[in-house]
């Protein structure tokens, strides 16, 4: 199941890198970028995280909170954040329940072979908790800039 613009964003409550719970309901009234990635420290995931971090001032200026989500535990997230100077929260979805609810977990191709895992996906969620934009199967490099451009368009609308 893939989410489309206008769909309600599935609620979640996940721990961040410090074990503090993050609840989507608590973020109502502001926009959120939530991106799902396979694993801390891998080349593509590092590129994507660093590019979101580089664009963070732009997201912050628009009042958009950035959240990265993977199945990695808090210790891995802390190490990843510290190692790359990431300034946004990373959430642990250990059982992939939230990724599944967002359509960001399932069968995908890896080196031409079908595998089950995280489908690199990003969601721009509006102030009302609805999906404003959904990207599935994205390429890591350059993706943060595209998401920021969409957030800017939505801000002007």
Give a verbal description of the structure:
This protein has 157 residues and is an alpha/beta fold. It has one domain (29-156): Glutaredoxin, CATH 3.40.30. It has helices at 43-54, 56-61, 74-84, 97-101, 143-156; strands at residues 13-15, 21-23, 31-36, 64-70, 89-92, 105-110, 113-118, 121-125, 131-136. It has a five-stranded mixed sheet. It is globular, with a radius of gyration of 14 Å. It contains five helices and nine strands. The model has no long low-confidence stretch (mean pLDDT 95). A hairpin with a 2-residue loop joins strand 6 (105-110) and strand 7 (113-118).
Tell me about the biggest sheet? Answer: 5 strands, mixed
Q: Nearest-angstrom radius of gyration?
A: 14 Å
Give average pLDDT, whole number.
Answer: 95
The CATH architecture: 3-Layer(aba) Sandwich
User: Structural class, please?
Assistant: alpha/beta
Query: How far apart lie the N and C ends?
Result: 28 Å
Into how many domains do the coordinates divide?
1
What name goes with the CATH superfamily?
A: Glutaredoxin
CATH class category: Alpha Beta
Counted beta strands: 9
List descriptors.
Glutaredoxin; single chain; alpha/beta; 5-stranded mixed sheet; 31% helix; two-stranded antiparallel ribbon; 157 residues
Topology readout:
Blueprint: E1 13-15, E2 21-23, E3 31-36, H1 43-54, H2 56-61, E4 64-70, H3 74-84, E5 89-92, H4 97-101, E6 105-110, E7 113-118, E8 121-125, E9 131-136, H5 143-156
Parallel strand pairs: 3-4, 4-5
Antiparallel strand pairs: 1-2, 3-8, 6-7, 8-9
């Amino acid at each position: 199941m893939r989410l489309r613009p206008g769909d309600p964003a599935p609620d979640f409550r996940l721990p961040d890198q410090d074990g503090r719970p993050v609840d989507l309901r608590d973020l109502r009234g502001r926009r959120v970028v939530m991106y799902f990635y396979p694993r801390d420290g891998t080349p593509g995931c590092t590129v994507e995280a660093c590019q979101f971090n580089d664009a963070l001032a732009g997201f912050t200026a628009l009042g958009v909170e950035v959240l990265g989500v993977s199945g990695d535990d808090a210790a891995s997230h802390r190490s990843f954040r510290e190692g790359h100077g990431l300034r946004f929260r990373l959430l642990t979805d250990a059982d992939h329940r939230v990724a599944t609810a967002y359509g960001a977990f399932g069968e995908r191709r890896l080196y031409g072979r079908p595998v089950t895992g995280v489908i690199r996906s990003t969601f721009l969620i509006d102030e009302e908790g609805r999906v404003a934009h959904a990207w599935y199967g994205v390429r890591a490099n350059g993706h943060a800039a595209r998401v920021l451009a969409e957030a800017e368009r939505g801000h002007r609308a």
